[in-house]
Amino acid sequence: MTKPLALVFYERLMPGSQLVNRLQDIGYRVSTCTDLGGLVAHAQKEGPMVIFMDLTSDKGDVNTVIKELREDGGTAHIPIIAFTSKSNKKAQNAAVEAGAKMVAVDEAILPQLPQLLDQALEVE
């Protein structure tokens, strides 16, 4: 049986690399993308089951890309879990408005990863 694929966009080494390792530990294949501008095309090509996006980026507006993913017919169905620092409330709210299924704080994403995945992949 093929392992499910998670696509992870991150620029910050921590928690990005830790998230990749944790996903692999719980049985996911992981594709990483550091090119924010190419993320939609990357998601279309790879067809992940879930997308994780670090809201902290020097390369552009992550929430614009979340919105693009939601509006694209090939990626609109993929749940997006965004993550950022606890203090970044503005980015958290903007990510939900853009279409992220949920937003986790950096400190909680690793210990709560299985529960977050269960919630994100739940069929509504």
Description:
This protein is of the alpha/beta class and 124 residues long. The protein has a single domain (5-118), classed as Response regulator (Rossmann fold). Helices cover 44% and strands 19% of the residues. It has 6 helices and 5 strands, in the order E-H-E-H-E-H-E-H-E-H-H. The protein has helices at 13-25, 39-46, 62-71, 89-98, 106-109, 113-121, and strands spanning 5-9, 29-33, 50-54, 80-84, 102-105. It has a 5-stranded parallel beta sheet with strand order 2-1-3-4-5, sandwiched between helices. Helix 3 links the parallel strand 3 (50-54) and strand 4 (80-84). Helix 3 (62-71) runs parallel beside helix 4 (89-98). The radius of gyration is 13 Å and the shape is globular.
Q: Indicate how many domains the architecture comprises.
A: 1
Strand order of the biggest β-sheet: 2-1-3-4-5
The CATH topology corresponds to Rossmann fold
Strand content: 15-25%
At CATH level 2, the architecture is 3-Layer(aba) Sandwich
Q: Main beta sheet: strand number and arrangement? A: 5 strands, parallel
| CATH class annotation | Alpha Beta
Low-confidence stretches: none
What's the pLDDT, averaged over the residues? 93
Number of helices: 6
Shape: globular
